[in-house]
Specification:
Blueprint (H helix, E strand, L loop, with lengths): L17 H24 L2 H27 L5 H7 L14 E3 L4 E3 L4 E3 L4 E3 L4 E3 L4 E3 L4 H31 L1 H11 L3 H35 L3 H20 L3 E4 L5 E4 L5 E2 L15 E2 L10 H4 L6 E2 L14
Helix pairs in contact: 1-2, 1-6, 2-4, 4-5, 4-6
Subcellular location: Membrane
Catalytic activity: L-cysteinyl-[protein] + hexadecanoyl-CoA = S-hexadecanoyl-L-cysteinyl-[protein] + CoA
Pfam families: DHHC
Length: about 325
């Protein structure tokens, strides 16, 4: 327990998110439909190909999802702090950040997840489908999971199309086969349509997710970094459009009103929390992104010293 709230170490610790339960039910449904409908309705060669690719990819999805859910990505310094054997003490070597919620030193890239109530080492995002945070220890498992899931969904989609093609081109044979082996042709074709639409939509979403993580890897950003960056960028754009007056806090405590769009000038505070408005996450550490010189003057979350005010060109004033 921390601050009256239970610490969730992995995805198998309750409470379970509704998406997590839905993923279990959908996986069970897909396996049942594949075994009951797809296997009997396909010819021998197609049946062998489908069985190999579908069930092998489905096995990978289940195994990798289990490992990613079971994994504990908690910051090791936070674990040491909450370990009774440490008596609440810890060394500060190699620690450059402090979490005011966990009340302990943490790694610089760690973030505090309010859903799990813990700091996660190299936090990427909280996955509702796994009910667990994705961080340093299980990020590679997450990538392998979405790749395996993409293969699994594409296999379902391709063979759904094959069965639908047989239905439209050889309706008589398809109907006889469905009635003979499964008893109801209409129910069979309805389930195949459902599987085709489901696998098609989710395979596209999964491909987009894989592409996003490849893009973020090239930028050297996490999913959380990307979300915060876009959020701050949108806020800055809105401030520039509104062109509101900002107050400069001078080093001697005096206030100067100045009209610089989207720029807040004041003393830099490393204890400030730029994520206070986040619904899902809390962080007690400042987050810095690589801004270029032009963007530095327009970002609303950037603080500069009052002595630098005169360096801004007159074009920046409203």
């Amino acid at each position: 327990m921390r601050n009256g709230k239970r610490i969730k170490r992995n995805g198998f610790n309750p409470p379970f998110h509704p998406f997590q339960i839905i993923s279990w039910l959908v996986t069970t449904f897909n396996i049942c439909i594949s075994a009951i409908i797809y296997i009997p309705m396909l010819d021998f060669i197609a049946k062998a190909i489908f069985g190999i690719f579908y069930f092998s990819s489905q096995a990978l999805v289940i195994i990798i999802a289990y490992k990613a859910t079971k994994c504990d990505p908690t910051d090791p310094w936070s674990i040491e702090h909450t370990n009774p054997a440490s008596n609440g003490t810890q060394t500060t070597q190699n620690c450059e950040a402090f979490c005011t919620i966990c009340n302990c030193n943490v790694n610089p890239k760690s973030k505090h997840c309010s859903r799990c109530n813990r700091c996660v080492d190299n936090f990427d995002h909280h996955c509702k489908w796994l009910g667990n945070c994705i961080g340093q220890r299980n990020y590679k498992l997450f990538i392998w999971l979405i790749v395996s899931l993409m293969i699994n969904l594409l296999v379902i989609f391709v063979f759904s199309v094959i069965l639908l093609e047989n239905y439209f081109n050889n309706f008589g044979d398809f109907q006889d086969k469905a009635n003979d082996k499964l008893g109801n042709c209409n129910a069979v074709i309805a389930l195949i349509w459902i599987m085709a639409m489901f696998s098609g939509v989710f395979s596209l979403a999964d491909i987009y997710l894989i592409g996003l993580h490849i893009y973020l890897a090239k930028l050297g950003m996490t999913t959380f970094d990307y979300i915060i960056y876009n959020r701050n960028k949108e806020k800055s754009k809105n401030k520039i459009n509104s062109c509101k007056d900002e107050t400069i806090v001078t080093p001697d405590g005096g206030n100067i009103n100045i009209n610089i769009p989207g720029v807040k000038i004041g003393k830099i505070s490393m204890d400030s929390n730029p994520y206070a408005d986040s619904e899902d996450y809390n962080s007690s550490r400042r987050f810095d992104l690589p801004y270029d010189e032009t963007e530095l003057k327009s970002q609303s979350n950037i603080s500069v010293l009052a002595s630098d005010v005169n360096n801004y060109p007159a074009s920046n004033k409203c």
